[in-house]
Amino acid sequence: QLVAYEVKRMRAEEGNKQKILRHIKELAEKLYKNENPYPAVTMHKVQKPTEGCHLRLHQKPFPRLDEGTVQWIIDQATAKLQTAPPAVKAEKKCMVPSGPPIAAIMERNGNALANSARRLEVVRNCISYVFENKMLEAKKLFPAVLRAMKGRAARHCLTQELNLHVQQNRAVLDHQQFDFIIRMMNCCLQDCTAMDEHGIAAALLPLVTAFCRKLSPGITQFAYSCVQEHV
To answer: Tell me, what's a Pfam family for it (predicted)?
Structure first.
């Protein structure tokens, strides 16, 4: 609905923080109501008698309640509640027009998205070159890969690509390959924030115990020995 109806409004709000915040609050309320459709049960308030009411004439005495009748009413209500079907919010389905093309909204972000896609492509290509032993090509792309590690998408891409190679039983590397992979991992962990701890860093854990190199017959060095200093 935002895409379809509110593009003009969003453009008009650009640069005005108060309007943007008000818009965000409205959206937040809509989202909250969508997640919490049932309002809290309101308690019936018993009205207090007005001041001086006891001085009024012709006051009717409060009728005596019949205990049996009251209990019968309570039992009826309890039985109804037990047999009542669970309250389900009826889904209202509606057609939302497609609105303007995404490009119209993302004009300014278009270049950023293209750049992001290019960065991920560079990361994938560099890792492929390393595993195909095309070290000259990998060296050319390496500085760009290390720069790309500043972005979370590139860090995530690195973990995915390395995981694919582990699954293909390509975890035992030669010295040059090992060096490249370690430098990528170190750079990736260096740029990780606390938010990445359970995402990127956690995804790297099984990888650093898989990638290794043979130092001499019977002696194997695993990747974790080179990246374990990171917080």
So the answer is: SBF2
